Batch of 4 targets.
Target 1
Amino acid sequence: MRKLALLVLLFGGAVAAYAGSSSSGPVEFSLVAWNDGAWQNGYPYVIEAVNDPGQSILFAMCDDYFHGGMPGDMWQANITQLGSDNISQARFNNIPGPNGLYPLLLYDEAGWILLQTLDTPRSQFQAMNYAVWYLFDPSQTPCNGACQIWITNAENAASNHFPDTDFDKVYIVTPVNQHDPNPNGPQEFLAIGTDSGLIPNPGNPTVPEPGTFVLIGSGVAAIAGRRLLS
């Protein structure tokens, strides 16, 4: 199995565990920052559990191109462990396809892409996030060049049944209003943890250094939908 470089702590904080079972109930999160201060830069977004500020920082990949939001926003979210194959609380669980398992296939492809960030150069992170956005919203998400390559890579991995991929380490963080039609509502995120939950551990991750994040003031107005900016 692929050796996973695990999530890191921001500002030296310790990270609390949040189980991947829907039975654990919603967790309140806040959006701390975008990568280099702009949502268009893609992975990693920085989110944290509100009840443990500064001690539960997570690096996450947004899979939701339609919804917006700003650093400082807070929302309640359900956490789903992708390896459970139960995506009933996930935002894109009703995407039409050739069969009932099609939405799960999309999440598996997105989770596979996220896991590749652990041993892929940072220069690819933006294209990888756009590929994940494209999986769930191909009509609105721009996807050219490297983004298309990552789509093809994910499809090839799916056709080979995702060899050496541990989906128990991928978590879906979904707003409790999972099918919210408001484009200014909170996004859905994917994050990496362990088999036990979102528990970062010491390691040598490939995410940017903390100093590359620009924290945005809470007084900035919310984005009026990603579709207007695509």
Target 2
Amino acid sequence: MGKTMQKIKIWNIFDEEKIEQGKMFPLEFEAQVDNGAVRVILPSKIVEKLQLRPLGKTKVRYADMREAERDTVHGLVIEILGRRTDCSAIIESNRTVPLIGQIVLEDLDLWIDSKNGKLIPNPESPDMPLLDEI
């Protein structure tokens, strides 16, 4: 089992109208998908391209148990396998690829098929996300 990579489209929510009118196009990237991660983490270079500015900070804990404080951005739209959501992201200056964590996977009702190394829609809701509201 290796890393699960997936093509994603991302844009600044304030560019939504321009994208709908075809005056602008979303950025496309190969992203690492990891249900062991919680949030979206973006390289600072992508944040700059999206013209998002930091609006807060959050404390993060890495797999090796180090802790650090990182800037966060809001107003990010992510589309994966035709499903989209808006969210916030943590900025990580030394990352080279975006990381998609559990919150977006849950919101889009996507599963990691680790046997085949790919992302798939929930088989019980292949056409659109099905969210359990309790």
Target 3
Amino acid sequence: MRRLPGLAALVLLFVSVKPAAADITGFLGADTTPSNRSVKGFALGAGLLIVGFEFEYAATADDILEGAPSLKTGMGNVLLQTPVSVMRMQPYFTFGGGVYREHLQAHEETGVAANTGGGVKVTLAGPLRLRLDYRIFKLGSDALYSPSHRLYAGLNLKF
């Protein structure tokens, strides 16, 4: 009989847990360090009510005249988000880490990086959302420019 309350609590926990949701984002934007350059990429994510996880890949073009290297990043991130949309918007904060590769003419550097940032997912229609995001990347010690700042907009599909 002592186990009955614990078992009942466990059953209620599993019945009340919201199923995991997943999403995919394709994005375009700008890396602003040290000059404005185009960036494109994608993110795949999954999460429960408040905590989410995502993998993100992005590639930034170089600008040889400005001395700005190309930058490729692959990041694993944790998202902390509101459990529901408020006025069709779901704000989030994110942090994570991964690898980067920077290339400018003869210079090439590969290393580890950390990132932090935030944004909002705005519901457009059904599962389609607009995602606006700002990130700061702390690149390894041999990177030409660190931190690197990125701003993007993308289409997000929730499934």
Target 4
Amino acid sequence: MKSDSIAFAVAGLLFGLLAGWVIGSQQAKMGPQVPTAPQTAQAPVASPTGTAAPPPLDQNQVAALTSLADRDPKNATPRVQLGNLYFDAERYEDAIKWYSEGLKLAPKDADVSTDLGICYYYTNQPDKALEQFKTSLAINPKHAKTLLNVGIVRAFGKQDLAGAQVAWQQVVDVAPNSPEAQQAKKALDSIKSAHPNLSGTPGT
């Protein structure tokens, strides 16, 4: 789901803050990066429509990792890396397939679970994304990047600013010195500025 689905007044204000976030589980830096052998998906959950074309899919890496996955059906790593390659190429359905397979083999990996949730969001499934984030938080209730994503999906996918406010406040509470908390504070300030009477109670 891209920014054209957003129907509330503060969307533009928030979007300027959120569009550049790197929400994937590996990096703390701002701005997209494409590692040669990615370990987790690196993409903002709220990227704008009309951004630069995604990097081309590296078919050599796909072939090598697919071969490795076929040879070792109990190895989650090549499956997750395939998910990352497809994610970077914005082929989210393919990424979902590989992240799901990786998560079956590594069910306690909150990073992979969250990356899978981001893919659900990008394929216009915000409710499924939020359910997947619940799985991530069951694994690690203080997973800051998951909480940050919950807020973004609440705001952009569900038009639930109050719910987003709750999630972003949780980021600040659990990881106050993190880059995620810095971004959450900016979003909270924007919401409060635009909607000073909004209560932080999640919607449906």
